[in-house]
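ugh ok fine here u go
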Amino acid sequence: MNFLENIPTVWLALGASVFCWLITALGASLVFFFKKANVLVMNILMGFSAGVMIAASFWSLLSPAIDLSRELGYIDWLFPCIGFLAGGLFVIGVSKLLDKSLGANVETKAQSKRRSILLVTSITLHNIPEGMSVGVAFGAIAAGTPGSTLIGALTLALGIGLQNFPEGASVALPLRHEGYSRTKSFLFGQFSGIVEPCAAMLGYFLCTAIKAALPFCLAFSAGAMIAVVASELIPEACKESKNSAAIGCIAGFIVMMLMDVALG
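structure:
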């Protein structure tokens, strides 16, 4: 950990977001070995990631946003509430637009191709707030935000990376089923995660350049993450077994809590 503390936070943010992208690519690489992934294992992993992201949204993002608001002389709950709401509404709005685009039509080859494009697009858009969350977490450290810790930022990146594994598979495997080659399916699957390093850098530089806006940025990322967890991860994780998903979620929450509180 001392070694990591000597590395500039901008490089840590970039490295952490690239890690998230590589895990997406690793999940997409399953297309070279399997026709379909083990659904139960994927769902447990999604539940675990949901628990990590729920805990991270508070300890790594929302709590520091409240502390910083108080330090800057703002009403301590105002910007965190506004940012949290804005982040959640952003994710919900994007999901609504995608659902509208996926309107039920007669199935044709063209519609099948269109559905594949929308699948890649939806996962890609879904990854933007996650990438921003990683960048914001490291940007908060660089800005000296109270409550922001390196271990918390790293664990947040780990949680997002873990849930990117089934996401990469969830893009590549259906594309293979639609008739795409294994190589094309893999390339599209990993492409859905390439936006995370770009979004992370955007979040990082926004935080370090405009400290006054940092409480809003932190809370926005927290709201976006909770919306992703509630609308995507938990429903998907519960498809095979609600109990397994719940156990995975509890385990993920505890791991994140221990990492952030005990080691942070």
